């Protein structure tokens, strides 16, 4: 089995080599994702070809989760440490003067944002391959707006 490893720089400068390696059976291309936009462009070009590069989309999901957490952390009514987000799962807490978690989750659902309440002050959100970075940004904005509204 041939393993092809490319640095981020090599990947960006020689995409034809990266595509060829990905198309060869048994080839594995690993790329450090520095920009989520790079991943989305590459994934859109390669989607449906084999192998689908799991390392890329997992890394992109984790990046989306960190971006989501950074936006939430800017709110005074939400507590989350973006540096602790290591996967696509984000847990965050609501301040005492914010609406409770079940209310935030219900209002977010009305606006197309899905999350799960864990108790009265903690919420769990998960990014996914099928959710774009723009949708994650919108979800964070929706949650912040709800959390910053007067408690019900």
Write out key terms for the chains shown.
2 domains; elongated; 152 residues; Aspartate Aminotransferase, domain 1; alpha+beta; four-stranded antiparallel beta sheet
Description of the structure:
The chain is α+β, with helices and mostly antiparallel strands. It has 2 domains: 4-56, no CATH class; 59-147, Aspartate Aminotransferase, domain 1. The chain contains 6 helices and 6 strands. The protein has helices at 8-13, 15-23, 36-46, 54-73, 101-110, 133-147; strands spanning 4-5, 29-30, 78-79, 89-94, 116-118, 122-126. The protein has a 4-stranded antiparallel beta sheet. Strands 1-2 form a two-stranded parallel ribbon. A hairpin with a 3-residue loop joins strand 5 and strand 6 (122-126). Helix 5 crosses helix 6. The longest helix has 20 residues, at 54-73. It is elongated, with a radius of gyration of 18 Å. Residues 25-35 have low confidence and may be disordered.
